[in-house]
Batch of 4 targets.
Target 1
Amino acid sequence: MVAYLALLGALGWQARVALTRTRHAIGRSIVVGCCGIIGAVAAHNLFEDLHVLHLSVQLAAVWGLMEAMGNDGATSDTSDTSEVIPATSNK
């Protein structure tokens, strides 16, 4: 039960980060939808331990999508491809 609550806490933190970093309204809508899916599955699993085929694959995809939306607004020096330096110069 402690591990399950820790997982839900980590997902809540990930959702909060994704909501604050996402720039676009569609990205925020996707994150809110991911939160709805996670909440529905978590509530279902508390009351009924029903084995649903490939539900873990769907949850992994939702978690990955939420993480991708959270990294939408993140910037780093290595991911900036707006300025490409040519390999050779014409002199």
Note: The radius of gyration is 19 Å.
Target 2
Amino acid sequence: MKMYESRFLAVYFFPEEKIHENVWLPASEEMEEHNYQEESLNFLEILLNNQPEGFIADTREMNFGIMPDLQAWTNEHILSKALSSNIKKVAFLISKEMITQLSIEQTMEESEEVALRTRYFDNREAAWQWLTS
């Protein structure tokens, strides 16, 4: 079920599977830092309200590079709170933009927490299969 949509991001929650999904949209290339922060806080609120066990970040159309200062902000304000939720597994659908992908991976690597099991996929079906196994 769709929980939120803007021109940059669509957020879904699937209660039976206990999976939260973020789908970054092509317009994300027009985002500025404050847009990324707002969208991140929006999806975090939905995530914390629904307490999923699995999380899919579909970054295939995300055309916004997360610079080092924003990576630090993400770790402090988003990942630290997400780690306190019920999430056990995170699946990233790989972005077409290698710079974006690198910045997403660096954000996850810089997190000092290791409670989440994270994997990267190039198709949604494989990500779902891993999350629900």
Note: The domain at 2-131 is CATH 3.30.750.24 (Transcription Regulator spoIIAA).
Target 3
Amino acid sequence: MEAADVIIFFDLSPLITTYRVIKRRLQYHGKTRPDLNEGCPESIDWQFMMYCWNFRRDKRHGITEKLKQHSKDKQIILIRTPKEAKLLLRDITNSGCRSFERADVSEIIGQK
């Protein structure tokens, strides 16, 4: 985080994240995902599913506390929905780095 100017935290609901894990598992069943090393087929287990489901409950507070520590010298953008992510990507595509000069991109931790 020290080297970053902007930090984007995806704080998506457990329903969305768990659905996407299952969807990826079905989509790449028996195959290697493009973002994984060759020979590393897609797999999930109950422990991983529970980690995903409980991530927000178990880890969010610690993450937001660390982000607040950096909020004075970094721009922290909190994305809570897929729609917010799409809007941010569209803004970055259209405006490039200037997207981060505007505070209205999304909620900024500690400022709204």
Note: Confidence is low (pLDDT under 50) at residues 108-112.
Target 4
Amino acid sequence: MNARENECNGGSLGIFIYFSVIFSDIYLYMKKATQFMHSPTLNTVLMVERALTEAKELLKVAELKRRLPRQVMHGTLVQILEYLQQSGKILFTPKGVVWIYRPPHELEAMKKGGREL
């Protein structure tokens, strides 16, 4: 094997090792990131929805936590509240949380009983 062949083989080996290290670092980073990220279960989302619809008033997040039948981690609760706000079911403000969603049949009834402009 001459010097040129040795340089090429060593160079490709070096590149292989370099990319192996980079990909293993990326893998470990993604593994750590996915360990901390999880989504709330449907039962938990429905439990929060039920508590908000029954409240019929503005609630602080701490008060909402007290009214829930099971304990929910703060991060999980905030994630649920952000989802409900994006879907148009609640208003989530610094003063509190309030349920605003009305089903279509209720909206139709409100239209019939209202004034036409």
Note: The first helix runs from residue 3 to 36.
